[in-house]
Write a structure and sequence with these properties.
By secondary structure, this protein is α+β, with helices and mostly antiparallel strands. Helices cover about 30% and strands about 30% of the residues. It has one domain. The chain has a four-stranded antiparallel beta sheet, with no helix packed on it. Strands 4-1-9 form a three-stranded mixed beta sheet, with no helix packed on it. The chain has a two-stranded antiparallel ribbon with strand order 7-8.
Length: about 150
């Protein structure tokens, strides 16, 4: 019984930290109109690509940029920002009561208190404007000399 109480007392400081309550990764959802575009994510440990709609698991601490490409449409680059939502702030603040400086340091390092924005990433692709054909320069036509009328 004493061992159980001791184990609970040792584990209690980690209960409030965001690393435990939220995890160090999150799902980034990406969708495009029209669907079927290639989404390339840079800033991850392993650069990743997927065909929309798709979901990618990313570290909360990563500095991510999403590049969307589809043939016939303009490419778009979307940098994701990191923000601390209410749930992340609560987990991070839990360190003050239970996790102490160590828990705060872990959360700061792993980015566990942060979420990427925008998430989901929703992009409406713009068609590439067709290049208008160049009007051909009209050459002045040679005027034909009038033919004399046939004599009878």
């Amino acid at each position: 019984m004493i061992r159980l109480i001791l184990a609970a007392a040792l584990a209690l400081p980690c209960v409030g930290c965001a690393s435990v309550t939220r995890g160090t990764t999150e799902n980034i959802s990406i969708s495009t109109t029209p669907a079927g575009a290639t989404a390339e994510l840079s800033g991850l440990d392993n650069p990743t690509a997927c065909v929309t709609p798709c979901v990618v698991v990313a570290k909360r601490s990563a500095d991510i940029t999403v590049t969307i490409n589809k043939e016939g449409y303009e490419s778009q680059v979307i940098p994701l920002t990191k923000e601390i939502p209410g749930s992340g702030a609560a987990g991070f603040a839990g360190n003050v009561l239970l996790g102490g400086v160590v828990g705060m340091g872990v959360d700061a390092y792993t980015g566990a208190a942060q979420d990427h924005k925008p998430n989901p990433v929703i992009v409406t692709l713009q068609p590439i404007a067709p290049v208008p054909p160049h009007p051909e320069k009209q050459r002045p036509q040679k005027q034909k000399k009038p033919q004399p009328a046939p004599q009878s």
